[in-house]
Structure formats: structure tokens, C-alpha cells
Input
Amino acid sequence: MEAVLLLAVAASSAALARSLTGRGDAAPLAAERAARSALRRASELLRALGASRAASALLALPGWRECARWAASRTGAAGAGLDEGEAASALVLAAVGAGILASALFGSWLMLPVCVAGLLAGVPLAASRRAEALRREAAKAMPAVFRTLAVAIGAGMTLVQAAEYAGAHVSGAVGEAFARLGLRLRCGMSTEEALAALSRELEAPGAGLLSTALVISHRTGSPLRGLFQRSAVLVERQGEFERLLAVKTAQVRMSVRVVCLLPAVMVCLLAAISPDFQEGLCTPAGTGCVLVAAALDATAVAIIRRLVGKVL
Output
């Protein structure tokens, strides 16, 4: 393994030295052609993997579709234009490549399964973190939405105009949701169906009340300006309470995460870099001790989640 790493470093150093000395005009062109050919083959491989059953099975796992959609949007902004299946395949290939590189650096093949296991465990966690961030962003924007709709409907605008006005003056995912609401209404979708779709898209406090109030306002013609303004105040107070609770419980939540994750991280790290620990882990006593420790850790996590669920 060390010999392969040394050969790769020597080859890259020789190529860099040759490019710096400028020997031969055909060398840069050949390197550019090789890079383009490698990119083309990589894109073909990603397309084939993205259309496979394995990619579909990955996207069916919890959190994978959300992370793949986010990665595809990031690559689309960069000009790559990957779809969800290709993005999921790229994540797997990146984890495998990182595992191979780490195995070459540490001289242990166990780094490859550790990297793959880290990807499988990290994708649902990243998806839940992103969903929580989007929910907080939507909750933060909801008071502005209520006030904007109060002004728009109070000024005599129709529901379509009010939705488009809110979509233009509210930033983030909430503004995009109201822009889609205005587009649906413009395209002929019924008010109840469009507002039901808006309620499903907005995972924020007051979204159900907002949809119901808009339906009532559309049917009766009532502006409901006072209701929207009062709702904006209540949503702001709820957001303040949630931020205060997050601040009060931040230290406890961090302690729980460290206590629960530290044993698993230490076992994986020692299994990857320590030959003595690997030998002890392969014995029946070592394997039994690790399994017992994992069972105790999982029991502690279940107890903590149950206690937190009762409090919150």
C-alpha cells in the first residue's frame, strides 16, 4: 500500500515538474485532452450509476433524497447539472475514494468501511439538520408573511395578487412557496387545492391557520387584517420561546451528543490506526466487549430520548 502511494506521488511530481519546465508544446494539450476525457468518462459513469437500481434504493433510504436534491442543486449552480441519482452516486464514490486514500495513509483497510459507514450515518443526520434549518428559516419569515398579507388583502388585492406580492417581498423558501401559490392560482388550480399544497410545503408555525384564513378571506371577501397582524405577533412570541429553549438546553444537548458519540468514534479510530486494538478486536472477548458497550450506549440513548420526549 505504501509503495502504491509513493508511486502515485512520484508520478504526480514528475508531471508537475515537466509542466513547469515547459518541455514540449504538446504536453499541455495532451494533459488537457486527458482531463477532458477523464471528466467525460466520469460523467458517463455517474449517469450509468444514477440510472441503476442501487441509486434508486439509496434514494429510498431516509434522508438520501433530500441530501441528493441539495447536492444536485449545488452542482447545478456550479454548471455540472447532476440529477438526484447521479448526486447520490457521487456521494458514494466520494466516500469510497476518501476511504481508499485514508487506508493508504494509515496503512489499514478498515478506513474504507469506516468512511462508508460514516456516509451512511451522516446523510440522514445532514438531512435532518437541513430540514430543521429550513423550518427555523420558515418560522422566522412567517411574521413578515402575515404582515405582508395583511397589507395586501387590506388594500383590496385579490388572493392571486396577494400571493404574488408576498412571494416578491418575502425572501427564502417561504417567498418561493407563495410565488408557487400565485402561479398555481394563475394556472387555474382551485383555491382550496392551492392552499392545501401551500400548507404542505410550509413546515412553519401558523401555516395551517394562514391557509384557513386565506380560504375564508377568498370566500367571504373579508380582509382579516386584524387576524393576520395578531397572528404575526403570536408567531414572533413562539419563535422567541423556541430560541430561549434552545439556548437553555444547548449545553445539555451538546453533552448528550458528546457522551453518546465519543465511544463509537474512539472505537472506530482505534480500529483504523492501532494494530494492537485490531488484534484485540478480532478476539471473541474483544468483540463481545464492544457489542456490550454498544448495547449499553444504545440503551442510554433510548432512555435519554424518552426523558426528553416527556419534558418537551
